[in-house]
Structure formats: structure tokens, C-alpha cells
Design goal:
- By secondary structure, this protein is mainly alpha-helical.
- The protein has a domain of 58 residues.
- Helix content is 62%, strand content 0%.
- The chain has four helices and no strands.
């Protein structure tokens, strides 16, 4: 037989989660822990790691996707948005 207290807690958590619905957002830093570990292993400076984490977090917030869902088009859109915000575009390069 189940303990009533545990059953009540389970229902409470479920109800609380349902209350958040579609608006529940997970901080992108959770998805970036492997990147942070890799940069630390490669002995990048703390300042560089902080910058990489900030830019990658901003990018994930911009796309609203998990790292494994990112596509080339997302990168192009983000890059274009950054150029627009700065009012500068790179010069065309011949390849």
C-alpha cells in the first residue's frame, strides 16, 4: 500500500508542473556543462570559458533550441541579427 504522504507529494508536484505548462524554460547553461568541462580540460582561461559560455547561452536563448537541435540556418540567422544590431556587415570575400 502506498503512503498517503508520498502520494500527496507526487500529486502536488504534478499539479505544480502542469501549472507552468508551455512557459517552463530550462536555463541553457544546463546544456552547456559539457562545453564548460571540455574547455576546462583543455586548460582555457576562466575568462575565456566565461565568454564562450555567455555567447553560447545567448545563442541558445536566441534559437530556443537545445544544442543537438541547432541547424546551419540558426547560425546564419543569429549572425545576421548580430550584424544588424551593430550596424556593420562584413566585406564580401571571394572564395
Amino acid at each position: 500500500m502506498l503512503n498517503d504522504d508520498k502520494l500527496w507529494q507526487h500529486k502536488g508536484v504534478k499539479t505544480m508542473m502542469e501549472g507552468f505548462g508551455e512557459n517552463l524554460t530550462i536555463d541553457p547553461y544546463l546544456h552547456l556543462e559539457p562545453l564548460q568541462k571540455e574547455l576546462s580540460i583543455r586548460r582555457y582561461s576562466k575568462r575565456t570559458i566565461k565568454s564562450y559560455m555567455r555567447y553560447n547561452r545567448d545563442f541558445l536563448l536566441f534559437t530556443g533550441k537545445k544544442p543537438e537541435e541547432i541547424e546551419d540556418e540558426d547560425i546564419k540567422k543569429n549572425t545576421f541579427t548580430i550584424w544588424l544590431s551593430r550596424g556593420k556587415f562584413p566585406h564580401q570575400r571571394s572564395i
